[in-house]
Amino acid sequence: MSIFSDVPQAPPVAVFKLTADFREDSHPQKVNLGVGAYRTDDSQPWVLPVVKKVERLIVEDDSLNHEYLPILGLPEFRSASSKVALGDDSPAIKENRVGGVQALGGTGALRIGAEFLRRWYNGTNNTATPVYVSAPTWENHNAVFADAGFKDIRPYHYWDAAKRGLDLAGLLDDLEKAPEHSIFVLHACAHNPTGTDPTQEEWKKIAEIMKRRKLFVFFDSAYQGFASGSLEKDAWAIRFFVSEGFELFVAQSFSKNFGLYNERVGNLTVVAQDNENLTRILSQMEKIVRTTWSNPPSQGARIVSKTLNSDIIGNVKTMADRVLLMRDQLKSKLQALGTPGTWDHITQQIGMFSFTGLNPKQVEYMIKEKHVYLMASGRINMCGLTTKNIDYVAQSIHEAVTK
Ligand code: PMP
Known about the structure:
Elements: H1 14-24, E1 31-32, H2 49-60, H3 75-86, H4 91-94, E2 98-103, H5 105-120, E3 131-135, H6 140-147, E4 153-157, E5 159-160, E6 165-166, H7 168-177, E7 183-187, H8 200-212, E8 216-221, H9 231-234, H10 236-243, E9 248-253, E10 266-271, H11 275-292, H12 299-306, H13 309-337, H14 344-348, E11 353-355, H15 360-370, E12 372-373, E13 379-381, H16 390-402
Helix pairs in contact: 2-12, 3-12, 5-6, 5-11, 7-8, 8-10, 13-16, 15-16
Bound molecules: 4'-deoxy-4'-aminopyridoxal-5'-phosphate.
């Protein structure tokens, strides 16, 4: 009898299970629209040319070695990351009140930030502070905050299924009613899974209430560059909140915009009120990192810090443009097929994903009958579409909707 015989079997993580099912499927026309990773028009992963170039320089650089990095990470990576988020000439950076914690991907940045907030925000070890996540959201948000100890995780209104757009009234109402000091996880751009972001005017309304109601802003920025093809434009919301004087966190992921998924490269940018607060915050962050991964890996951080924004943006734009093309084509093909319903949301939504509006039964049909794999929520990864499979996918959606 094993001492572990009472360990229950945990269910698989939906998005990785979908990929495993896809791999096992031998159908020649199978398509994977599940996991959020970029694919070329030949359905292949893409190592960004600038990344490849910098990787070669790193291999050739004899001054580099494999010593431990500092606990908080590679200094030039941390400052480069904060500059990507806040802008090269951010006043907050000039005022020495911005710091970074290098983290294992965006997930690590969220987790370290959540752990810090539980320990030190709104009291000491206050697990009762409400944490609000959008409805729907990236499914890991709930679990990350729950595992960090938060006991009260709540959805805030975000998606209006009927109008296939932002439920601004519901969102603003939730902000008004949330207890003071509640934590709000906001998607900085390219909302996952809906592909729907507030406009600048809407962000201003959100910020006004959050400031007045003393709510904490925790940005999740996993797709900077993917929404518009511009790193600057996609950081607008973050920069606006900083300009409004918020103390806030930004969990940054470089998995998607640098195509560095398995290097686990992320950063928690901390915008504090002043340098003295920042110093104390970072001293506590060190303690958290020390018992979590002790110090982070170097390869991804070196790549990001050695790649100039001006170099990466061309590659990011290539990805963003291909997504835009696929959005246009999918919409026109569905319209040409006369598929019932409106499909304008496909081109109105931005970033990597589209929230198609397909219901679970239609999704099941897509997977079982058509071998087109997508999340049960109806979310599709637009990068999984190519000029070669888009007719088949459009036809499959048409059948799923009309059968
Ligand atoms: N936040 C959101 C909204 C995401 O979609 C993802 C990745 N799917 C992450 C965070 C985590 O990114 P990473 O892979 O860098 O941990």
